[in-house]
Write a structure and sequence with these properties.
The complex is a heterotrimer of chains A (243), B (125) and C (243). Chain A is of the alpha/beta class. In chain A, 35% of the residues lie in helices and 25% in strands. In chain A, the strands form 2 sheets. Chain A has a 6-stranded mixed beta sheet with strand order 5-6-7-3-8-9, with helices on both faces. In chain A, strands 2-1-4 form a 3-stranded antiparallel beta sheet, with helices on one face. Chain B is mainly alpha-helical and 125 residues long. Classes of the chains: A alpha/beta (243), B mainly alpha (125), C mainly alpha (243). Chain C: It comes from Agrilactobacillus yilanensis.
Chain lengths: 243, 125, 243
Protein backbone atom coordinates (compact mmCIF):
# COMPACT_ATOMS: atom_id res chain seq x y z
CA UNK A 1 0.00 0.00 0.00
CA UNK A 2 1.29 3.42 -0.93
CA UNK A 3 1.40 6.07 1.76
CA UNK A 4 -0.53 9.19 1.01
CA UNK A 5 0.13 11.19 4.17
CA UNK A 6 3.32 11.27 6.23
CA UNK A 7 3.85 13.26 9.40
CA UNK A 8 7.35 13.15 10.85
CA UNK A 9 8.24 14.49 14.23
CA UNK A 10 5.44 17.03 14.27
CA UNK A 11 5.28 19.21 17.36
CA UNK A 12 2.81 21.99 17.91
CA UNK A 13 2.46 24.26 20.93
CA UNK A 14 -0.12 26.85 21.73
CA UNK A 15 -0.63 28.97 24.83
CA UNK A 16 2.49 27.39 26.36
CA UNK A 17 0.92 23.95 26.13
CA UNK A 18 2.08 21.09 23.99
CA UNK A 19 -0.85 19.97 21.85
CA UNK A 20 0.95 17.64 19.46
CA UNK A 21 4.20 16.11 20.66
CA UNK A 22 6.75 14.65 18.23
CA UNK A 23 4.00 12.88 16.37
CA UNK A 24 4.71 10.40 13.62
CA UNK A 25 1.96 9.04 11.43
CA UNK A 26 1.51 7.52 8.02
CA UNK A 27 -1.81 7.15 6.27
CA UNK A 28 -2.16 4.85 3.27
CA UNK A 29 -3.94 5.65 0.03
CA UNK A 30 -7.53 4.53 -0.53
CA UNK A 31 -8.42 4.01 3.12
CA UNK A 32 -11.09 5.19 5.50
CA UNK A 33 -9.33 5.86 8.77
CA UNK A 34 -10.97 6.59 12.10
CA UNK A 35 -9.20 9.15 14.28
CA UNK A 36 -10.11 8.37 17.87
CA UNK A 37 -9.28 10.06 21.13
CA UNK A 38 -10.85 11.88 24.06
CA UNK A 39 -11.82 15.54 23.90
CA UNK A 40 -8.67 17.60 23.88
CA UNK A 41 -6.50 14.73 22.65
CA UNK A 42 -5.64 16.84 19.61
CA UNK A 43 -7.86 15.34 16.89
CA UNK A 44 -9.02 18.67 15.49
CA UNK A 45 -5.54 20.15 15.78
CA UNK A 46 -4.08 17.20 13.90
CA UNK A 47 -6.56 17.73 11.06
CA UNK A 48 -5.89 21.46 11.04
CA UNK A 49 -2.17 20.78 10.82
CA UNK A 50 -2.59 18.39 7.91
CA UNK A 51 -5.02 20.74 6.11
CA UNK A 52 -2.48 23.58 6.03
CA UNK A 53 -4.19 26.25 8.15
CA UNK A 54 -1.68 26.09 11.01
CA UNK A 55 1.54 27.96 10.21
CA UNK A 56 3.78 27.54 13.24
CA UNK A 57 4.51 23.86 13.82
CA UNK A 58 7.75 21.90 13.88
CA UNK A 59 8.44 18.79 11.80
CA UNK A 60 7.26 17.86 8.34
CA UNK A 61 3.82 17.09 6.97
CA UNK A 62 3.47 15.66 3.50
CA UNK A 63 0.42 14.74 1.42
CA UNK A 64 1.64 13.03 -1.75
CA UNK A 65 4.28 15.44 -2.95
CA UNK A 66 2.76 18.47 -1.23
CA UNK A 67 4.74 19.70 1.76
CA UNK A 68 4.03 23.43 2.12
CA UNK A 69 0.85 24.67 3.76
CA UNK A 70 -0.37 26.22 0.51
CA UNK A 71 0.33 23.06 -1.49
CA UNK A 72 -1.52 20.91 1.05
CA UNK A 73 -4.56 23.17 0.87
CA UNK A 74 -4.72 22.21 -2.80
CA UNK A 75 -4.83 18.44 -2.24
CA UNK A 76 -6.85 18.06 0.95
CA UNK A 77 -10.49 18.90 1.60
CA UNK A 78 -11.20 19.86 5.21
CA UNK A 79 -14.70 19.75 6.68
CA UNK A 80 -14.15 22.91 8.72
CA UNK A 81 -14.24 24.98 5.58
CA UNK A 82 -17.41 26.85 6.50
CA UNK A 83 -16.09 28.83 9.48
CA UNK A 84 -16.32 32.48 8.53
CA UNK A 85 -19.07 32.25 5.89
CA UNK A 86 -21.41 35.22 5.90
CA UNK A 87 -24.44 33.88 7.80
CA UNK A 88 -26.90 34.99 5.14
CA UNK A 89 -25.12 33.07 2.37
CA UNK A 90 -27.28 30.61 0.45
CA UNK A 91 -26.02 27.08 -0.17
CA UNK A 92 -25.78 27.68 -3.91
CA UNK A 93 -23.74 30.82 -3.28
CA UNK A 94 -21.34 28.85 -1.10
CA UNK A 95 -21.07 26.21 -3.82
CA UNK A 96 -20.37 28.86 -6.46
CA UNK A 97 -17.74 30.41 -4.23
CA UNK A 98 -15.98 27.05 -3.82
CA UNK A 99 -16.38 26.29 -7.52
CA UNK A 100 -14.57 29.50 -8.40
CA UNK A 101 -11.77 29.14 -5.86
CA UNK A 102 -11.11 25.40 -5.94
CA UNK A 103 -10.27 24.00 -9.36
CA UNK A 104 -11.21 20.52 -8.09
CA UNK A 105 -14.68 21.49 -6.88
CA UNK A 106 -17.59 19.83 -8.69
CA UNK A 107 -20.89 21.70 -8.63
CA UNK A 108 -22.47 18.60 -10.13
CA UNK A 109 -21.38 16.41 -7.20
CA UNK A 110 -22.47 19.09 -4.73
CA UNK A 111 -25.94 19.28 -6.26
CA UNK A 112 -26.30 15.51 -6.37
CA UNK A 113 -25.31 15.18 -2.72
CA UNK A 114 -27.66 17.89 -1.45
CA UNK A 115 -30.48 16.51 -3.58
CA UNK A 116 -29.93 13.02 -2.20
CA UNK A 117 -30.02 14.45 1.32
CA UNK A 118 -33.18 16.53 0.66
CA UNK A 119 -31.45 19.86 1.11
CA UNK A 120 -32.70 22.94 -0.67
CA UNK A 121 -29.89 24.92 -2.31
CA UNK A 122 -31.75 28.20 -2.04
CA UNK A 123 -31.78 28.03 1.75
CA UNK A 124 -29.52 30.19 3.85
CA UNK A 125 -26.81 28.48 5.84
CA UNK A 126 -27.83 30.26 9.03
CA UNK A 127 -31.41 28.99 8.66
CA UNK A 128 -30.39 25.33 8.65
CA UNK A 129 -30.92 22.97 11.57
CA UNK A 130 -27.83 21.32 13.01
CA UNK A 131 -28.44 18.13 11.03
CA UNK A 132 -28.95 20.03 7.78
CA UNK A 133 -25.87 22.10 8.43
CA UNK A 134 -23.85 18.90 8.79
CA UNK A 135 -25.29 17.67 5.49
CA UNK A 136 -24.19 20.90 3.84
CA UNK A 137 -20.71 20.66 5.34
CA UNK A 138 -20.33 17.12 4.04
CA UNK A 139 -21.62 18.08 0.59
CA UNK A 140 -19.18 20.97 0.27
CA UNK A 141 -16.27 18.88 1.55
CA UNK A 142 -16.94 15.88 -0.67
CA UNK A 143 -17.67 18.00 -3.75
CA UNK A 144 -13.98 18.75 -3.93
CA UNK A 145 -12.42 15.88 -5.87
CA UNK A 146 -9.14 15.41 -4.05
CA UNK A 147 -6.94 12.65 -2.66
CA UNK A 148 -7.49 13.39 1.03
CA UNK A 149 -10.58 14.26 3.04
CA UNK A 150 -10.35 15.45 6.63
CA UNK A 151 -13.74 15.04 8.29
CA UNK A 152 -13.80 16.46 11.79
CA UNK A 153 -16.78 15.11 13.75
CA UNK A 154 -19.01 15.11 10.68
CA UNK A 155 -21.86 13.37 12.51
CA UNK A 156 -21.73 15.35 15.72
CA UNK A 157 -25.13 15.85 17.31
CA UNK A 158 -27.30 14.36 14.59
CA UNK A 159 -29.85 11.56 14.74
CA UNK A 160 -29.00 8.02 13.65
CA UNK A 161 -31.18 8.11 10.52
CA UNK A 162 -29.41 11.18 9.17
CA UNK A 163 -26.08 9.72 10.19
CA UNK A 164 -26.72 6.62 8.09
CA UNK A 165 -27.57 8.77 5.08
CA UNK A 166 -24.45 10.85 5.53
CA UNK A 167 -22.31 7.72 5.77
CA UNK A 168 -23.87 6.43 2.55
CA UNK A 169 -23.12 9.74 0.81
CA UNK A 170 -19.58 9.47 1.99
CA UNK A 171 -19.24 5.95 0.62
CA UNK A 172 -20.88 6.96 -2.64
CA UNK A 173 -18.77 10.02 -3.32
CA UNK A 174 -15.35 9.03 -2.03
CA UNK A 175 -13.18 9.03 -5.18
CA UNK A 176 -11.32 5.78 -5.88
CA UNK A 177 -7.88 5.90 -4.24
CA UNK A 178 -8.81 8.81 -1.99
CA UNK A 179 -8.26 8.55 1.74
CA UNK A 180 -10.71 9.78 4.36
CA UNK A 181 -9.56 10.63 7.87
CA UNK A 182 -12.62 10.87 10.05
CA UNK A 183 -13.01 11.65 13.74
CA UNK A 184 -16.07 10.76 15.78
CA UNK A 185 -16.95 10.72 19.45
CA UNK A 186 -19.00 7.59 18.99
CA UNK A 187 -16.75 4.93 17.57
CA UNK A 188 -19.56 2.46 17.01
CA UNK A 189 -21.25 4.80 14.54
CA UNK A 190 -18.47 4.47 12.03
CA UNK A 191 -16.78 1.21 13.06
CA UNK A 192 -18.17 -0.75 10.09
CA UNK A 193 -16.76 1.54 7.45
CA UNK A 194 -13.23 1.84 8.79
CA UNK A 195 -10.10 0.26 7.32
CA UNK A 196 -7.94 1.50 10.16
CA UNK A 197 -8.11 3.21 13.49
CA UNK A 198 -5.61 5.75 14.77
CA UNK A 199 -5.80 6.49 18.48
CA UNK A 200 -4.50 9.78 19.86
CA UNK A 201 -3.54 10.16 23.50
CA UNK A 202 -1.03 12.31 25.32
CA UNK A 203 -0.50 14.41 22.18
CA UNK A 204 0.78 11.35 20.34
CA UNK A 205 -0.42 8.42 18.28
CA UNK A 206 -0.57 5.51 20.71
CA UNK A 207 -2.07 2.97 18.34
CA UNK A 208 -2.65 2.50 14.64
CA UNK A 209 -4.24 -0.76 13.59
CA UNK A 210 -6.37 -2.36 10.91
CA UNK A 211 -10.01 -2.57 11.95
CA UNK A 212 -10.45 -6.13 10.68
CA UNK A 213 -7.28 -7.20 12.48
CA UNK A 214 -8.68 -5.92 15.75
CA UNK A 215 -11.76 -8.08 15.24
CA UNK A 216 -9.91 -11.09 13.86
CA UNK A 217 -6.78 -11.23 16.04
CA UNK A 218 -7.93 -9.56 19.23
CA UNK A 219 -11.53 -10.75 18.94
CA UNK A 220 -12.67 -7.31 20.06
CA UNK A 221 -15.04 -4.73 18.76
CA UNK A 222 -13.37 -1.48 17.75
CA UNK A 223 -15.09 0.24 20.64
CA UNK A 224 -13.79 -2.23 23.24
CA UNK A 225 -10.31 -2.09 21.75
CA UNK A 226 -10.35 1.69 21.92
CA UNK A 227 -11.57 1.68 25.52
CA UNK A 228 -8.95 -0.90 26.54
CA UNK A 229 -6.15 1.09 24.97
CA UNK A 230 -7.38 4.31 26.48
CA UNK A 231 -7.86 3.05 29.97
CA UNK A 232 -4.64 1.18 30.45
CA UNK A 233 -2.18 -0.97 28.59
CA UNK A 234 -0.18 1.36 26.43
CA UNK A 235 -0.39 4.13 29.01
CA UNK A 236 3.04 5.26 30.17
CA UNK A 237 1.86 6.65 33.46
CA UNK A 238 1.95 10.25 32.35
CA UNK A 239 -1.76 10.48 32.11
CA UNK A 240 -2.21 12.71 35.14
CA UNK A 241 0.79 14.93 34.70
CA UNK A 242 -1.01 17.39 32.49
CA UNK A 243 -4.20 17.65 34.42
CA UNK B 1 -27.81 -6.11 7.45
CA UNK B 2 -26.67 -5.97 11.06
CA UNK B 3 -23.08 -6.90 11.75
CA UNK B 4 -21.62 -8.47 14.83
CA UNK B 5 -18.99 -5.94 15.81
CA UNK B 6 -16.55 -8.52 17.19
CA UNK B 7 -16.30 -10.57 13.98
CA UNK B 8 -14.42 -9.32 10.93
CA UNK B 9 -16.85 -7.65 8.55
CA UNK B 10 -15.37 -9.31 5.45
CA UNK B 11 -16.04 -12.70 7.07
CA UNK B 12 -19.65 -11.80 7.80
CA UNK B 13 -20.12 -10.61 4.23
CA UNK B 14 -18.81 -13.95 2.95
CA UNK B 15 -21.28 -15.78 5.17
CA UNK B 16 -24.04 -13.52 3.92
CA UNK B 17 -23.24 -14.30 0.28
CA UNK B 18 -22.97 -18.03 1.05
CA UNK B 19 -26.46 -17.88 2.52
CA UNK B 20 -27.83 -15.93 -0.43
CA UNK B 21 -26.47 -18.64 -2.75
CA UNK B 22 -27.70 -21.58 -0.66
CA UNK B 23 -31.23 -20.22 -0.36
CA UNK B 24 -31.16 -19.39 -4.10
CA UNK B 25 -31.47 -15.63 -3.73
CA UNK B 26 -28.41 -15.83 -5.90
CA UNK B 27 -28.56 -18.58 -8.52
CA UNK B 28 -25.65 -20.13 -10.42
CA UNK B 29 -24.53 -17.71 -13.13
CA UNK B 30 -26.14 -14.67 -11.47
CA UNK B 31 -24.26 -11.42 -11.55
CA UNK B 32 -23.46 -9.78 -8.22
CA UNK B 33 -24.11 -6.06 -7.76
CA UNK B 34 -21.13 -3.79 -8.38
CA UNK B 35 -18.66 -3.48 -5.52
CA UNK B 36 -19.62 0.11 -4.70
CA UNK B 37 -23.31 -0.81 -4.78
CA UNK B 38 -22.72 -3.71 -2.39
CA UNK B 39 -20.74 -1.40 -0.12
CA UNK B 40 -23.69 1.01 -0.07
CA UNK B 41 -26.30 -1.71 0.44
CA UNK B 42 -24.39 -3.10 3.41
CA UNK B 43 -22.99 0.30 4.52
CA UNK B 44 -19.43 -0.91 4.67
CA UNK B 45 -16.11 0.06 3.17
CA UNK B 46 -15.42 -0.80 -0.48
CA UNK B 47 -12.10 -2.38 0.54
CA UNK B 48 -13.93 -4.75 2.89
CA UNK B 49 -16.29 -5.85 0.10
CA UNK B 50 -13.32 -6.31 -2.20
CA UNK B 51 -11.56 -8.51 0.33
CA UNK B 52 -14.67 -10.67 0.81
CA UNK B 53 -15.21 -10.98 -2.94
CA UNK B 54 -11.60 -11.80 -3.71
CA UNK B 55 -11.66 -14.60 -1.14
CA UNK B 56 -14.88 -15.89 -2.67
CA UNK B 57 -13.22 -15.79 -6.08
CA UNK B 58 -10.20 -17.67 -4.71
CA UNK B 59 -12.58 -20.31 -3.31
CA UNK B 60 -14.21 -20.62 -6.73
CA UNK B 61 -17.64 -19.62 -5.42
CA UNK B 62 -17.55 -16.49 -7.56
CA UNK B 63 -16.08 -16.04 -11.00
CA UNK B 64 -14.67 -12.69 -11.99
CA UNK B 65 -15.15 -11.79 -15.64
CA UNK B 66 -12.93 -8.92 -16.62
CA UNK B 67 -14.89 -5.80 -17.30
CA UNK B 68 -18.20 -7.53 -16.68
CA UNK B 69 -18.31 -8.13 -12.96
CA UNK B 70 -18.57 -11.02 -10.55
CA UNK B 71 -20.81 -14.02 -11.17
CA UNK B 72 -21.92 -16.95 -9.04
CA UNK B 73 -20.15 -20.06 -10.29
CA UNK B 74 -22.08 -22.57 -12.37
CA UNK B 75 -19.81 -25.37 -11.20
CA UNK B 76 -22.24 -27.74 -9.41
CA UNK B 77 -19.53 -29.53 -7.41
CA UNK B 78 -18.25 -26.27 -5.92
CA UNK B 79 -21.78 -25.22 -5.01
CA UNK B 80 -22.51 -28.57 -3.46
CA UNK B 81 -19.32 -28.45 -1.45
CA UNK B 82 -20.18 -24.91 -0.36
CA UNK B 83 -23.56 -26.07 0.92
CA UNK B 84 -21.92 -28.94 2.77
CA UNK B 85 -19.29 -26.67 4.23
CA UNK B 86 -21.78 -24.10 5.53
CA UNK B 87 -23.98 -26.81 7.06
CA UNK B 88 -20.92 -28.43 8.55
CA UNK B 89 -19.79 -25.18 10.15
CA UNK B 90 -23.15 -24.87 11.90
CA UNK B 91 -23.15 -28.48 12.97
CA UNK B 92 -19.65 -28.11 14.25
CA UNK B 93 -20.81 -25.41 16.67
CA UNK B 94 -23.63 -27.60 17.95
CA UNK B 95 -21.39 -30.65 18.20
CA UNK B 96 -18.68 -28.79 20.11
CA UNK B 97 -21.17 -27.37 22.61
CA UNK B 98 -22.88 -30.72 23.15
CA UNK B 99 -19.52 -32.47 23.48
CA UNK B 100 -18.62 -29.94 26.15
CA UNK B 101 -21.72 -31.09 27.98
CA UNK B 102 -20.32 -34.65 27.68
CA UNK B 103 -23.11 -36.03 25.51
CA UNK B 104 -22.30 -39.22 23.63
CA UNK B 105 -22.87 -39.22 19.85
CA UNK B 106 -26.01 -41.39 20.34
CA UNK B 107 -27.38 -39.00 22.94
CA UNK B 108 -26.69 -36.10 20.57
CA UNK B 109 -28.75 -37.74 17.81
CA UNK B 110 -31.64 -38.45 20.19
CA UNK B 111 -31.49 -34.92 21.57
CA UNK B 112 -31.50 -33.46 18.07
CA UNK B 113 -34.39 -35.68 16.95
CA UNK B 114 -36.44 -34.73 20.02
CA UNK B 115 -35.68 -31.07 19.47
CA UNK B 116 -36.77 -31.23 15.82
CA UNK B 117 -39.99 -32.97 16.78
CA UNK B 118 -40.67 -30.32 19.40
CA UNK B 119 -40.07 -27.46 16.94
CA UNK B 120 -42.46 -29.15 14.48
CA UNK B 121 -45.15 -29.28 17.17
CA UNK B 122 -44.52 -25.65 18.10
CA UNK B 123 -44.93 -24.60 14.51
CA UNK B 124 -48.20 -26.53 14.21
CA UNK B 125 -49.71 -24.83 17.25
CA UNK C 1 -3.26 26.88 -7.16
CA UNK C 2 -5.94 29.53 -7.25
CA UNK C 3 -4.85 32.70 -9.02
CA UNK C 4 -4.72 36.20 -7.56
CA UNK C 5 -7.21 37.40 -10.19
CA UNK C 6 -9.78 34.72 -9.33
CA UNK C 7 -9.49 35.38 -5.62
CA UNK C 8 -9.65 39.13 -6.18
CA UNK C 9 -12.85 38.78 -8.23
CA UNK C 10 -14.39 36.47 -5.64
CA UNK C 11 -13.63 38.93 -2.84
CA UNK C 12 -14.80 41.87 -4.94
CA UNK C 13 -18.27 40.58 -5.85
CA UNK C 14 -19.98 40.68 -2.41
CA UNK C 15 -18.12 43.85 -1.39
CA UNK C 16 -19.18 45.59 -4.60
CA UNK C 17 -22.78 44.71 -3.74
CA UNK C 18 -22.34 46.11 -0.24
CA UNK C 19 -20.81 49.29 -1.64
CA UNK C 20 -23.71 49.69 -4.07
CA UNK C 21 -26.12 49.26 -1.20
CA UNK C 22 -24.31 52.03 0.70
CA UNK C 23 -24.48 54.28 -2.36
CA UNK C 24 -28.19 53.68 -2.76
CA UNK C 25 -28.72 54.34 0.94
CA UNK C 26 -26.97 57.72 0.74
CA UNK C 27 -29.03 58.69 -2.35
CA UNK C 28 -32.24 57.73 -0.65
CA UNK C 29 -31.24 59.66 2.47
CA UNK C 30 -30.41 62.72 0.36
CA UNK C 31 -33.71 62.56 -1.51
CA UNK C 32 -35.75 62.08 1.64
CA UNK C 33 -34.00 65.02 3.31
CA UNK C 34 -34.66 67.09 0.23
CA UNK C 35 -38.37 66.23 0.24
CA UNK C 36 -38.65 67.08 3.92
CA UNK C 37 -36.99 70.45 3.40
CA UNK C 38 -39.11 71.33 0.40
CA UNK C 39 -42.21 70.27 2.32
CA UNK C 40 -41.34 72.35 5.36
CA UNK C 41 -39.93 75.50 3.80
CA UNK C 42 -41.72 75.44 0.43
CA UNK C 43 -38.47 76.61 -1.05
CA UNK C 44 -35.81 74.97 -3.08
CA UNK C 45 -32.35 75.99 -2.13
CA UNK C 46 -29.56 74.43 -4.14
CA UNK C 47 -26.93 74.86 -1.49
CA UNK C 48 -28.83 72.54 0.77
CA UNK C 49 -28.79 69.77 -1.76
CA UNK C 50 -25.07 69.95 -2.36
CA UNK C 51 -24.48 70.01 1.36
CA UNK C 52 -26.71 67.02 1.87
CA UNK C 53 -24.94 65.07 -0.83
CA UNK C 54 -21.63 65.81 0.86
CA UNK C 55 -22.88 65.07 4.34
CA UNK C 56 -24.46 61.73 3.50
CA UNK C 57 -21.49 60.78 1.35
CA UNK C 58 -19.27 61.36 4.37
CA UNK C 59 -21.48 59.42 6.80
CA UNK C 60 -21.95 56.58 4.32
CA UNK C 61 -18.24 56.63 3.58
CA UNK C 62 -17.36 56.23 7.24
CA UNK C 63 -19.82 53.36 7.68
CA UNK C 64 -18.53 51.71 4.50
CA UNK C 65 -14.97 52.14 5.73
CA UNK C 66 -15.84 50.16 8.88
CA UNK C 67 -17.83 47.54 6.95
CA UNK C 68 -14.97 46.99 4.50
CA UNK C 69 -12.50 46.78 7.38
CA UNK C 70 -14.62 43.94 8.79
CA UNK C 71 -14.59 42.24 5.40
CA UNK C 72 -10.80 42.48 5.30
CA UNK C 73 -10.25 41.21 8.82
CA UNK C 74 -12.53 38.17 8.62
CA UNK C 75 -10.27 36.78 5.88
CA UNK C 76 -7.17 36.52 8.09
CA UNK C 77 -8.62 34.26 10.74
CA UNK C 78 -11.28 32.11 9.09
CA UNK C 79 -10.98 28.81 7.26
CA UNK C 80 -13.50 29.84 4.62
CA UNK C 81 -10.79 32.15 3.26
CA UNK C 82 -7.56 30.74 4.64
CA UNK C 83 -8.17 27.28 3.12
CA UNK C 84 -8.05 28.74 -0.40
CA UNK C 85 -4.98 27.23 -2.07
CA UNK C 86 -3.17 30.49 -2.69
CA UNK C 87 0.01 31.97 -1.19
CA UNK C 88 -0.36 34.39 1.72
CA UNK C 89 1.06 37.24 -0.36
CA UNK C 90 -1.55 36.78 -3.07
CA UNK C 91 -4.34 36.33 -0.54
CA UNK C 92 -3.27 39.58 1.12
CA UNK C 93 -3.05 41.49 -2.14
CA UNK C 94 -6.37 40.25 -3.49
CA UNK C 95 -8.07 41.13 -0.22
CA UNK C 96 -6.82 44.72 -0.28
CA UNK C 97 -7.21 45.14 -4.01
CA UNK C 98 -10.89 44.21 -3.80
CA UNK C 99 -11.41 46.73 -1.00
CA UNK C 100 -9.51 49.43 -2.84
CA UNK C 101 -11.69 49.01 -5.92
CA UNK C 102 -14.81 49.39 -3.75
CA UNK C 103 -13.43 52.55 -2.16
CA UNK C 104 -12.66 54.10 -5.55
CA UNK C 105 -16.08 53.04 -6.82
CA UNK C 106 -17.85 54.64 -3.87
CA UNK C 107 -15.91 57.91 -3.94
CA UNK C 108 -16.05 58.07 -7.74
CA UNK C 109 -19.82 57.79 -7.86
CA UNK C 110 -20.28 60.31 -5.07
CA UNK C 111 -17.97 62.82 -6.72
CA UNK C 112 -19.64 62.40 -10.12
CA UNK C 113 -23.04 62.81 -8.53
CA UNK C 114 -21.97 65.93 -6.75
CA UNK C 115 -20.46 67.41 -9.89
CA UNK C 116 -23.54 66.50 -11.91
CA UNK C 117 -25.70 68.30 -9.44
CA UNK C 118 -23.42 71.29 -9.61
CA UNK C 119 -23.70 71.18 -13.38
CA UNK C 120 -27.51 71.05 -13.35
CA UNK C 121 -28.06 73.60 -10.61
CA UNK C 122 -24.81 75.44 -9.89
CA UNK C 123 -24.54 76.94 -6.44
CA UNK C 124 -23.11 80.38 -6.31
CA UNK C 125 -20.00 79.84 -4.20
CA UNK C 126 -19.07 76.37 -5.36
CA UNK C 127 -19.37 77.11 -9.03
CA UNK C 128 -16.34 79.26 -8.99
CA UNK C 129 -14.20 77.11 -6.77
CA UNK C 130 -15.10 73.84 -8.48
CA UNK C 131 -15.06 74.58 -12.15
CA UNK C 132 -12.41 77.16 -12.23
CA UNK C 133 -10.10 74.57 -10.71
CA UNK C 134 -8.18 72.51 -13.19
CA UNK C 135 -9.07 68.80 -12.87
CA UNK C 136 -5.52 67.91 -12.19
CA UNK C 137 -5.63 69.87 -8.97
CA UNK C 138 -8.44 67.68 -7.69
CA UNK C 139 -6.43 64.57 -8.18
CA UNK C 140 -3.81 64.93 -5.41
CA UNK C 141 -6.37 65.31 -2.58
CA UNK C 142 -8.24 62.32 -3.99
CA UNK C 143 -5.10 60.19 -4.06
CA UNK C 144 -4.15 61.26 -0.55
CA UNK C 145 -7.63 60.36 0.73
CA UNK C 146 -7.47 56.92 -0.83
CA UNK C 147 -3.98 56.34 0.57
CA UNK C 148 -5.15 57.43 3.99
CA UNK C 149 -7.99 54.91 3.96
CA UNK C 150 -5.64 52.22 2.78
CA UNK C 151 -3.18 53.15 5.48
CA UNK C 152 -5.77 52.77 8.24
CA UNK C 153 -6.89 49.46 6.84
CA UNK C 154 -3.41 47.94 6.76
CA UNK C 155 -2.83 49.39 10.22
CA UNK C 156 -5.98 47.72 11.58
CA UNK C 157 -4.82 44.46 10.02
CA UNK C 158 -1.46 44.88 11.72
CA UNK C 159 -3.14 45.27 15.12
CA UNK C 160 -5.37 42.29 14.49
CA UNK C 161 -2.58 40.03 13.26
CA UNK C 162 -0.11 41.07 15.93
CA UNK C 163 -2.64 40.34 18.68
CA UNK C 164 -3.58 37.02 17.12
CA UNK C 165 0.05 35.98 16.74
CA UNK C 166 1.05 37.05 20.25
CA UNK C 167 -1.95 35.37 21.87
CA UNK C 168 -0.65 31.98 20.74
CA UNK C 169 2.39 32.35 22.98
CA UNK C 170 0.63 33.31 26.16
CA UNK C 171 -0.86 31.03 28.80
CA UNK C 172 -4.60 30.69 28.34
CA UNK C 173 -5.40 32.60 31.52
CA UNK C 174 -3.37 35.61 30.50
CA UNK C 175 -4.55 35.87 26.92
CA UNK C 176 -7.31 38.33 27.61
CA UNK C 177 -5.24 40.64 29.79
CA UNK C 178 -2.33 40.70 27.39
CA UNK C 179 -4.66 41.20 24.46
CA UNK C 180 -5.92 44.37 26.09
CA UNK C 181 -2.39 45.49 26.82
CA UNK C 182 -1.48 45.02 23.17
CA UNK C 183 -4.55 46.98 22.13
CA UNK C 184 -3.53 49.71 24.53
CA UNK C 185 -0.02 49.93 23.10
CA UNK C 186 -1.44 50.10 19.62
CA UNK C 187 -3.96 52.73 20.58
CA UNK C 188 -1.12 54.88 21.92
CA UNK C 189 0.88 54.43 18.71
CA UNK C 190 -2.33 55.10 16.87
CA UNK C 191 -2.95 58.42 18.63
CA UNK C 192 0.62 59.58 18.10
CA UNK C 193 0.31 58.73 14.42
CA UNK C 194 -2.99 60.53 14.14
CA UNK C 195 -1.63 63.74 15.64
CA UNK C 196 1.43 63.64 13.39
CA UNK C 197 -0.71 62.88 10.40
CA UNK C 198 -3.18 65.56 11.20
CA UNK C 199 -0.51 68.17 11.07
CA UNK C 200 0.72 66.97 7.72
CA UNK C 201 -2.74 66.54 6.28
CA UNK C 202 -4.03 69.86 7.48
CA UNK C 203 -0.97 71.42 6.08
CA UNK C 204 -1.54 69.63 2.80
CA UNK C 205 -5.24 70.35 2.42
CA UNK C 206 -4.74 73.94 3.46
CA UNK C 207 -1.85 74.29 1.10
CA UNK C 208 -2.12 71.65 -1.62
CA UNK C 209 1.06 72.29 -3.52
CA UNK C 210 3.21 69.76 -5.30
CA UNK C 211 5.90 69.56 -2.69
CA UNK C 212 3.62 68.74 0.23
CA UNK C 213 1.66 66.30 -1.94
CA UNK C 214 4.78 64.45 -2.94
CA UNK C 215 5.92 64.28 0.64
CA UNK C 216 2.61 62.94 1.87
CA UNK C 217 2.29 60.57 -1.06
CA UNK C 218 5.73 59.06 -0.55
CA UNK C 219 5.35 58.92 3.21
CA UNK C 220 2.00 57.18 3.12
CA UNK C 221 2.98 54.80 0.34
CA UNK C 222 6.12 53.83 2.18
CA UNK C 223 4.25 53.23 5.43
CA UNK C 224 1.62 51.13 3.62
CA UNK C 225 4.32 49.01 1.96
CA UNK C 226 6.27 48.50 5.19
CA UNK C 227 3.21 47.59 7.26
CA UNK C 228 2.00 45.30 4.48
CA UNK C 229 5.33 43.49 4.42
CA UNK C 230 5.05 42.91 8.18
CA UNK C 231 1.41 41.81 7.77
CA UNK C 232 2.26 39.28 5.07
CA UNK C 233 5.06 37.89 7.21
CA UNK C 234 2.73 37.57 10.21
CA UNK C 235 0.04 35.99 8.06
CA UNK C 236 2.42 33.45 6.60
CA UNK C 237 4.22 32.48 9.78
CA UNK C 238 2.03 33.17 12.79
CA UNK C 239 -1.62 33.98 12.16
CA UNK C 240 -3.90 31.03 12.74
CA UNK C 241 -7.56 30.62 11.92
CA UNK C 242 -10.03 30.23 14.75
CA UNK C 243 -10.82 26.57 15.39
Amino acid sequence: MTNLVTLSNVTYKRNLKIIIDHLNLQLPQNNIIGLLGANGAGKTTLMRLISGVVPNYKGTIRIGTATTNTARKQVASFSQILTGVQPNARLTEIANYCDTLYSDFSIDVFEKIIASLDLDGTEKLSALSKGNRMKCVLAVTLARRVSLYLLDEPFDGIDSMTRKRLIKSMLTWKPDNATILISDHHVEDIANILDQVVILKHQMVISQKSAEEIREKDGLSIETYYENIYEGGVDHDQSHDNL
Amino acid sequence: MEFNDKIPIYYQIKQYIYTEIIISHLSPGDKLPAVRQLALDLTVNVNTIQRALSELIDEGVLESKRGKGNFVTEDETILMKLREKVIETQLQHVYDRLAELQLSPEEMITALQNYIAKRKDDNHD
Amino acid sequence: MTSLMTTFKTFLRPRFKTTSAFLIATFVATIISLIIIVWNTHSFKNTNISNFILMYAAIGGLALFIKLAQNIEIVWTHNYYRLIPISETKLYLSNFLATLVCLIYYSGVQVILFLLWELILPTAQLQISLFSLPWLRLLPPAIVSVLLCLFWWVFISLIHMATNATAAFLPNTRVRLVRWLIYLVFIIIFSILISQFNRLIQFFFGNPDNASFLMLFTGLSLLIVIISAINIYLLKRWVETTA
